[in-house]
User: Fold these one by one.
Assistant:
Number 1:
Amino acid sequence: MRNFADELIEQCMKKNSVLVVGLDPDIKLFPDFLSKQIDSSLESISEVIYEFNKIVIDAVADHVVAVKPQLAYYEVYGSYGIKALEKTIEYARSKQLVIINDAKRGDIGSTSMAYAQAFLGEGIIAGDMVTVNPFLGSDGYMPFLEVADENNKGVFLLLKTSNPSSYEIQDLILENGEQLYFKMAEDINKLASATIGSNNYSYIGAVVGATYPEEAKKLRKMLPYSIFLVPGFGKQGGKAENLSVFFDAKGNGALISSSRGIIYSYMDGDNEWVKATKDEMFKRIQKSVLTANEQINSVRFNESGI
């Protein structure tokens, strides 16, 4: 039985990459050739965000498996931001990239169903996968799993996130002595183990931060059928040498995500980044992607971390 995890793994094998690039467009960090196109209108912001994303996508398309729009950067501009998101998704699809909407949605059942249809259905902002907050309980995330199954798409459930304060909630000790995120991992595994595809993985994945390799080592054993989406590599402090624990012995089972470290790589090394041309921006982003791939691939087949 095939599911979306099979398609994802096959794309990773084809490109020899497990890298995901986040599309987090912050107009304050755009070079002059882009920012000068912005006038007082939200429409101009929408157009420039799309142009920025196109440059990033063109630079990374041959070297990454997926792009991951962070929805907050689009929603802040209302319908104009969503228009930029729609066009970005369409363009990424034309480059045969997987789209992971980083939405972190989750609500009561009926609302979650509406969210699931929006992000995993046939709508104009629907992608191939979406991040979901499971801490409202099963009626908050089950609609996403149902819609993903119906449409051959995938879900990443937040589990052990990369932010420094994640321990405040996710590490809470339950009455039985278990940490909360361990209990969540057990619940995810019950669902994932019943939905395994031909490559031995489920379309039900988990978000596990690169900044927590020791926790990831335990979670990899607890969740043998779930692909991990691994944020926090690069600028947030996740180190390439610690990534082997996220993968299985075949080098599968994880997607490593980097956003700022790649899309704003033209800012590194000098204070003249505002003067960067389109060509310079493209070349620096492409170089940073190739470097990231090399770093990740050097450790992902290391069985000693499993």
Number 2:
Amino acid sequence: MKKQILLAALLIAPWTGAQAFAEGDAMLDEARKVAMLLPPKLMATLQDEIGKTGFQGAIPVCKESAPKIAGAVSQETGWKIRRVSLKTRNETRATPDAWEKAVLEEFDKRAAAGEPPAKLEKGEKIGNEYRYAKALPVQSLCLGCHGKDEVTPAVKEVLSKTYPNDHAIGYVEGQIRGAISIRKAVP
């Protein structure tokens, strides 16, 4: 009898694992697609505003428009979406939770070991949620407000008034600025 139970367990275990793996792959694929909806919308809005008012005039896009765009993507997809960073500009919206902080630190280590920041991602089921994070490398457009040498005195003045506790400056192109973090309840 014990041999029959053991045999049954061995036969069922691989199938259950394969099913969980397939479900995880489907969630990862969905998460990747959702995470990629925000950056092009945000970049287009930023480019438009930078063209009209310069970098200092575009600061409200990240402060006000980006959360609205993320909220619209959340409503469209059913995923909660936000941007997080270890070096926050907006502490109330971008401070990572424990999982996000660990993922961002892991991304930094992986990037330091040679992995391209644009390819860094992590997805996993935790309890009754699927969580996913995708690294956001600094693009050339970002340097006008986040750069090491490119930030003008006019931009610095607006940033100091808008974000008195700003830590999101001093980057070079390609560094990890933060991540898009998304989550969704799963059965």
Number 3:
Amino acid sequence: MTAVQITVLYFAKSAELAETRREVLTVPRQLTSRQLWLEIVSHHPSLRVIEQNLVLAVGEQYVSLGDEELLLEPGQEVALVPPLSGG
């Protein structure tokens, strides 16, 4: 299985929990959105608390955590976008 380096961007609560706004991770090139989430959580277990309210953006396309197959390109950006409070 081929691995690629991706850039993970953390926003709002995810940045607070991960204690970073950006990092480079090496992950399998082909995996599901759920597997990608688990790869990220393996580096930052504290992120589990926002799993139910999180949206991933892979290459500027929103994906839900599930069985959606992803084919990642080297250097691709993945953003963790937790819900924003507002009013």
Number 4:
Amino acid sequence: MEISRKTMEAATAVVTGGVGALICYGSTENGIGWGAGGPEPGYFPFGIGCLILLGSLATLVQTFWKYAGARHPGPGAVAEEPFIDGTRLRLLVAFALPIMAMTAISVWLGLYIGMGLYIFYTMRVSAGFRTLSSLATALLVIAINFVVFEKLFMVPLLKGPILEYFGIY
């Protein structure tokens, strides 16, 4: 599977255009005009949303203009190059899935457990470290983060049911 750079540029322009349109729509609920006391609350966000929409449209036009000559080579034409191929896509997924799993686990079991499992997994499975080294590093990272956030900064992080069972609130 190969995704072209043109496809990704167009998809990015469409997504950012959608964000701009959403900002514009949300701004209209707060008023985008000029009232008796000055600009209404949605005035500035509406302008920013319009700029995002304009930039997205410009990117979309530029993308199709730039790659239009790829079918009819001439001066200034750019050949379509791959954005990502199958091998790189597999590496990207192998990197992204554990992070998404850590996020889900952290919501369910707490940040410290999710962090420890993520560190252990990436060191043991992805990097190929020994099990004992991976486990020791994961426990050390948990302990350091616990001391820094809970004791020094006094910022309680999400603990989850396992740490609560051991009386760590």
